[in-house]
Amino acid sequence: MAKEKKKITQELGINDQTPREIVAELDKYIVGQDEAKKSVAIALRNRWRSHKLPEEMRDDVIPKNILMIGSTGVGKTEIARRLARLVKAPFIKVEATKFTEVGYVGRDVESIIRDLVQTAVRMVRKQRTDEVKEKAAANAIERLLDVLVPEPKRSQNPLGKLFGNAEVDATPVEEEESTAKKHGREFIRKRLLAGKMEEQIIELEVADHAKPMVGMFSGSSLEGMGDNLQDMVSSLMPKRMRKRKVTIATARKILEQEEAEKLIDMEEVSETAVELAERSGIVFLDEIDKVAVKGSSSGPDVSREGVQRDILPIVEGSTVMTKYGPVKTDYILFIAAGAFHTAKPSDLIPELQGRFPIRVELKSLLKADFEKILTEPQNALLKQYKALLQTEGLSLDFQADAIEHIAELAEHVNEQSEDIGARRLHTLLEKLLEQISFEAPDMVKDGKTEVIIDAAYVDEKLKEIAKNKDLSQFIL
Length: 476
Known about the structure:
This protein is an alpha/beta fold. The chain contains 21 helices and eleven strands. It has helices spanning about 1-15, 20-25, 35-50, 55-60, 75-85, 110-130, 135-150, 160-165, 170-195, 225-235, 250-265, 265-280, 300-315, 350-355, 365-375, 380-390, 400-415, 425-430, 435-445, 455-465, 470-475, and strands at about 65-70, 90-95, 200-205, 240-245, 280-285, 320, 325-330, 335-340, 360, 395-400, 450-455. Strands 2-5-8-1-9 form a five-stranded parallel sheet, sandwiched between helices. Helix 1 (about 1-15) crosses helix 12, helix 17 (about 400-415) packs across helix 18 (about 425-430) and helix 17 packs parallel to helix 20 (about 455-465). The longest helix has 22 residues, at about 110-130. The chain is flat.
């Protein structure tokens, strides 16, 4: 069992792609920022390498945490989001601004690790559910048959209870009924397996799950205690059942889930999840610059420095108590990110700076980058807008000069006002296509099925706003 658990943990927790393959995967969605992609790819590969080391050496190799520095909209969060889909490891993205120093109102930093373990539990549970899926589906069919074709009740002797013999042998008529029921059950089974009864409504008895007490103990250091108390209360309370009228398709899903839960050993899931979080967890800590303190000051900055002091033991390695057991944070990879407009990385407390040895600066986006962002990624903005309007039957055709002009305007507005990176393209395109989006249904009714967007059209809709600095600050 221990060997099997170790094998599953490694299968879930380790991404065996090479650094070049990881970068190629990120390139499909993120333009530029090669240095940041390379650092992330090396960090992931080093994790794979450390798992291949002899056990006595493996414990001494800790992950090298990364600090990403760059203005908003250049791809920091997108790298993290895509990384989450790429790695087979527990991943959580949190904002440093959500946490406060212990003793203040707000979430304490240990909740980061609790959330990470919860993510690991979901991952392991999903894998176990997939493993027992076929058996759960077969059991669900049997329960559906029990509802659709109930087993015949055996007749009782009215005096049987007095003499200790409640049941009597079935009569020939009852045996015939039982055989008919059996044939009927097989007939219904075939129809269920063929999917011919999916829309039929049946009455199903299901467990009435009590709604979680949202916010219980939240915003305090007793948050974890609140989780444990909720679990304890729910385990003491008997399950309440209620009847629901659902289609057979819905009933099948409900019953499959219930049967899967019976087949899964949740204690083993918890143990595996804790090990997975400890050895393979990744935490993306965004907005780290917002808790940096510039110079020596007092007031609310004291609390911000307190957040850094509370983050420090989590990053450098400590043990956090969760409802699934104690979790060591020594081998969790932390990736921090921030714009650092008003503060610098050196404004972080020295101890925390030392825990992020890899520094990566993400560059501001230029016209050429904006052109690529508009057209190249799999989820490129122009592809999204085309697909949205195609649902109305309207085809959008962006000319090359229009794309170039939009990119030029994005670079210009970012220089003139706040640099919000690729997010500037969202505001420009929304303003550019506002009239078309509004009138699209009417245009199709009038027989117009294609709209060509060229540089002249872009000029007409955006040039005056982009030129007027005061106006662009409010609109773009």
